[in-house]
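Protein modeling request. Please complete all fields; requests missing the sequence field cannot be processed.
Requester role: graduate student
Desired output: 3D structure, token encoding
Chains: 1
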Amino acid sequence: MTIRRSTARHFAPRAGAVLAAVAAVALSVVSASSASARYAHIGASHGHSAGSLTPVVLQWYDITNSTITDAAFPQPVTGSNAWDVSWVAAAHAAAGSRNPDYQVAAFAQALHDALVSLVPSQASALDSDLTTTLATVPDGPAKSAGIAAGQQQAAAEIAARQNDGLDTASVDTPFTPPPPAPGVWQPTPPAFGPAVRAGEGNATPFLLTANNEFDPGPPPSLTSQTYLQSLAETESYGAVDSTVRTPQETDVALFWEPAINIQYIEIVRAIIADTNHSLDWDTRFVAAFQVVTTDAQISIYNAKYKYVRWRPVTAIREGSPGVTADPTWTPYFTTPSYPEYPSGHGGYAGAAQQVLTAFVGPFAPAPISVTSPTDPGSTHVYTDWAQVTQEVINARVWEGIHFRFSDDIGARQGAEVADYELPRLGSLGLY
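Delivered output (431 residues):
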């Protein structure tokens, strides 16, 4: 099944206290086109022979992806951090010279060393990959200098991110929820397991000065029109036995069920496959994308565990003032074991949209086909980044695990993180 999108609905405006809390923010996801002009210098390509080194970049992009996938980290942000550290190190190493022999050696060595340190179980395969790549580079001073730079930059980045709070134990810090009350998160069916990812919002960010810097403000009250409309929508469209969710909407829900970075890995890969870019540009782009989306995740989870808001399944089964309880209601997908507000998928998508816009503009250079492991046989084709964000927002509602206002607000929070960080990428050596 192939789904093509040519238009995208803009996000619903914020309401009540949430709107007041962020009214001063200049950039929202819907203004992404302006980001392209503001940050044109970020997207400028540098380096030797644009496109001539694309195959080695794609090779090591795929190596990184398979290495982190095989590591099977319990929480996605730990894998995101492995992307961050390894590609920031590679960007720093490759920037040391425009000589292609140097760049290839530095790039591959940095990725190898960082990934071996972060995912030691994959060391043997990574050693073989590095040997294969370095065998393509003629021996000489440029190759030797590149290898040395890769080793140095990987070691420096690993040291800089020691004890950053993104390891599994720190991310999954135990959490005791508040006593049950209307609006307060509680463990959700069917497992009623403990909260996870409670420590994610306390991790050390790359560029934020404070983890609550873009706090979205409290969610709408349980008696507000915004909340009641969102509750009704999720109850109707997100039920496992929904009679109003269309086959196309069900497909969208299925498509975005897994960890959100999986589909974006395909999107980013399609961009670096464009041979108009240099190795230097590609490496900076991947590093920037990963760093900004990781900081967006940290920001979102800081807010999640501040507001500790209940999930739709609890809200619908328990009821609240003016809302009749439905004890048998079941969401289309099993609810994740952490608070609902704001949406993590929304936050990631909002940040990703801004980074993509800053580097390549608001539209895809060519239609990009994306697949999903949870929706076999379905291919979604995207032509602009707003399409992707809107589809992510819709999916979480149609899956029955989020309220639309939480998805919208999460997307804006992610965009605000990106808007803050894009001009500051230079402090990480990424433009």
